Amino acid sequence: MIANPSVQVIKETPSTALIDGGGGLGQPIGVRAMRLAIEKAREAGAGFVAVRNSNHYGIAGYYAIMALDSDCIGVSMSNASPLVVPTFGRKGVLGTNPISVAAPAGQERPFVLDMATSVVPRGKLELYHRLVKPLPEGWAINERGDASTEAGTILNELSERLGGGILPLGGEGEELGGHKGYGLALMVDILSGVLSGGGYADRVHPKGEGGKMKPGNVGHFFGALLIEAFRPLDEFRAAMDDLIRRLKRSAKAEGESRIYIQGEKEWEMEEERRKHGIPLHPRVVTMMERIAEELNLPLILDNP
Amino acid sequence: MIANPSVQVIKETPSTALIDGGGGLGQPIGVRAMRLAIEKAREAGAGFVAVRNSNHYGIAGYYAIMALDSDCIGVSMSNASPLVVPTFGRKGVLGTNPISVAAPAGQERPFVLDMATSVVPRGKLELYHRLVKPLPEGWAINERGDASTEAGTILNELSERLGGGILPLGGEGEELGGHKGYGLALMVDILSGVLSGGGYADRVHPKGEGGKMKPGNVGHFFGALLIEAFRPLDEFRAAMDDLIRRLKRSAKAEGESRIYIQGEKEWEMEEERRKHGIPLHPRVVTMMERIAEELNLPLILDNP
Questions:
Q1: What pLDDT digit, counting tens, does each position of A203-254 carry?
Q2: Whether residue A145 is found in the same domain as residue A287
Q3: Is B73 in the same domain as B215?
Q4: Could you tell me if A109 and A187 lie in one domain?
């Protein structure tokens, strides 16, 4: 990990800490904070660390998974730029605010929940935009608050902060539980932004005068629970295996052959990629070639 | 609180505890466990308590709200009888597994998220059944795994454990994020059931031979975070007020006049009920009259 002298532990108790990220990169700040949460869990049973003054921290699940090697359950959350509309609203005020929780199993792969609290993360809209595909109904609304399937319009309105945005998990209104997804996003903002003293809602990546960049002031929230503080680890692992198998063995919907556990698709993808490599889009390769040229460095790819 | 000698603290660390409920009523067990979580948070910064061998604990939010008086953020979760189908399944294997998180504000009312991790709780199906109303699409599937709007059929299949059930938050399949609601339900089961050594999935309220009653072995998970362990309480309260106001002031969808904060509708209902009393359904009054007669006690109602 790159040492960053501006990352500071501001406050500590036996099972909590507050970290100021000094406006640095989210990833090393996140690793430092998660390590501290795990350390505290190993000593006090539970460890929770709030972080302010950080930036985008990448994959929420990465930090939750860090807890597994220390026989802990891991928790990771972050707020983000305002994109998600509250129930009955028509302007993105909250981030896609992800939640990740990871727990080890025995023979089975670890459970890794890693979810945006919106119907979809922002990246999904960008993908549909690039593929010139209409969005599925129920993902987003436009500036006027109407359901929209035009990814380009939504993304443009979002970047201009005109309004519109991604719907919370559960969708529009309350009938299918949209107020729950909205509540989860708000919970993440409280733990990551308010508790840490960082940005929250549209104060994350705020637009300065004339669109000038201001500090992102992204907030994160990390946690670890030592399993042995509650019950013997081998018992926990055996019960996790049993729970996972009960789910996987249960009756399938017509036309479906498999019930997944959160993280399973990604663990399998990782195995596949480790065996056969990571396919790169030709445009990504071109970009990397250009950067390599600029820096006068060789570009080493297995199958260019 | 009623003292229950069979409620036992099995294991403790500075910031965690495991409680065995001795098969008693969920409510007094829950109060005892939440008090312990708050006590630990006040001493160590964070307190988390897992409970096994309990029963239905009532309102998840009740316990989360208990933390507010101690200037803590409160967390409460519980598993429950199997009713909710995993993504791509067609049998209720998980409970409606509620999550509640409460956080104090300053001038504004506290934030209280209290949500089933399914689209709707079981009670909503019972209500529609009693009113002989078709369910909205997207709430439940029947034994064959098809979308169903017949509350009676679903409830009957559920009680017979034939299959079918309530959909997770996000609905059927993955397009609108059903795998996220399923993941949240599973997370609650891991924290409440697996971590505590209690029941989980269809081992909660298991059907014995010949349908005989067996212990429910319901599990709960409680937590408290001391706000002052992270930042001064008055700063936290002021930031909560500001966050709440930013949400409430943001642009409304067409035809909507108000954006709510989680718990707000219920706080207002409580004020209304304290002023004007709680209306009772005539059938409930009849039931209470019968019980009063049986016990030879007077029934005292304000407006019988």
A1: 999 877 666 778 899 999 999 999 999 999 999 999 999 999 999 999 999 8
A2: no
A3: yes
A4: yes
Taking the C-alpha atoms of residue A86 and residue B248, their distance in angstroms, rounded to an integer, is 9
A252 interaction partners in chain B (CB closer than 8 Å): 88-90, 145
Chain A residues 46-75 with a CB less than 8 Å from chain B: 46-48, 50, 73
> Which of A18, A169, A258 is facing B169, going by the closest CB pair?
A169
State ipTM. Answer: 0.95
Residues A153 and A23 reside in one and the same domain: no
CATH number at residue B155: 3.30.60.50
Domain presence at residue B298: no
What's the domain range around A188?
1-117+174-292
Span B167-202, pLDDT tens digits: 999 999 999 999 999 999 999 999 999 999 999 999
CB-based contact, B128 to chain A, within 8 Å:
no
Kindly state whether residue A303 falls inside one of the protein's structural domains: no
At residue A90's C-alpha, the angle toward residues A88 and A93, to 5°, is 100
pTM: 0.95
Are A170 and B170 a contacting pair at CB < 8 A? Answer: yes
Residue of A85, A195, A241 best to disrupt the B interface, most CBs of B under 10 A:
A195
Comparing alpha-carbon positions, the chain B residue that sits nearest to A189 is B243
Let me know whether B212 and B237 are in one domain.
yes
User: Is residue A129 assigned to a domain?
Assistant: yes
Is the Cβ pair B170, A169 closer than 8 Å?
A: yes
Provide the domain count of chain B. Answer: 2
Q: Which residues from A are below 8 Å from B260, CB to CB?
A: 87-88, 179
A70/A141 same-domain check: no
Query: Is B176 in Cβ contact with A119 (below 8 Å)?
Result: yes
Note the pLDDT tens digit of each residue in B107-153: 999 999 999 999 999 989 988 998 889 999 999 999 888 888 999 98
Q: What distance in Å separates residue B106's CA from the closest CA in chain A?
A: 13
